[in-house]
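Appendix B. One record, verbatim.
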Amino acid sequence: MIMRYQAYLFVSIIALMIASCNQNKLKNDHLNQIEIDPKALFEGKMSDLFEIVDIIFLETSELSVFSAYDITKMRYYDGVFYFFDEWRRRGLFAFDSDGQFIRQIGKRGRGPGEYLTPRDFNINHWHNRIEIYDVLNDKILFFSFEGEFISEFKLVGMKARAYEVFDPDSYVFFNDGHNKYGDDYQDIPSNFFISPVSEFSVKSVSVPTIYNYDYMNSLNPFSNHNNRVLFLSGLRDTIYSVFPEGIKPEFILRFKGDSIPSKVMEDGTDREIDSFLENNDVPGYKMYLNETANHITFCYSYGQGMNIVFFNKITKELINMGHKSMPINDINYINIFPPRCVMEDSLFVALVEPSDVLKIYDSLAVEKRDNHAGLNINAFLKLEEVISKIEEDSNPFLVVYKMK
């Protein structure tokens, strides 16, 4: 059991600068290049690309209610959806594949089996357990799939924004570099800590980091498909593979057009960089990384909006969709981007907030009343069917879809 191995995690820092901050200067011709033109947005019909497979309404009760806006991570495993609310409810909620609430995993507190500030969670299929990382209590708690507390693993001298399990005995922790936890953590660099659990030692691997921007803009930085762990976060333009021996660049993102000027990056304050990103159409933060057998998907900020990329690893074809020109939604008027997780091997799952759908419905109802020529009646009827199942204070619902 991991409990008997609790010990101080000695950090041996190995400075492995595997990439420079300016990806255009790297000579990585042997790597996969993903060419992206942020202004070349797909403008066809959604039905040309996607097929809606299912819509799953999540049971709403006093114990299970949450908002889609508070869910920072979502996973599907063995017929169960797991929703991680880091902000408001601060807990992990399990629903079956029909949307019925199963249970909350663990509870808030300082005692055994309790967490104070949950930061991340994982499904460890090697050890048949659910893990929740409590950043302020400095521990990872282990639960059975039935929600029973098993044990906990104390982390000493390290904080992380996110972590992933990538083999039976190894973890990778990504330290966000925010350094808001007191003097004890001021010297921790923003990097990876790869921890072989059997040895309880931590190997530090540096990656390019831009100021403190990894903290609030590291949503879903890891993907784990068939035990291959990929990482993309912050202002980086590289997708990395993670191994017990370290990390290596796997995909290089080549954005066409303007980028953040080096002077702004080098001399600007956090607020100045943030302002520049908001007021200029340049690629910014990367988040919501997912991988399937055929595709890699991720989002990147662009001006005041967000674009999403679907990259086919087999054909190298790329679909770039953005806030300034979304596809014609002739499937239904439900926003299915970004995909929040992957269900099985080829199905994407979106988490939809009912209030957003109600706003869309109200605007379309006016168009229907006025006999607007551009209204897609079939899509409106499908939306009406969804609306009929939404009640006041309903939980979010899931849209399961696949690419054609």
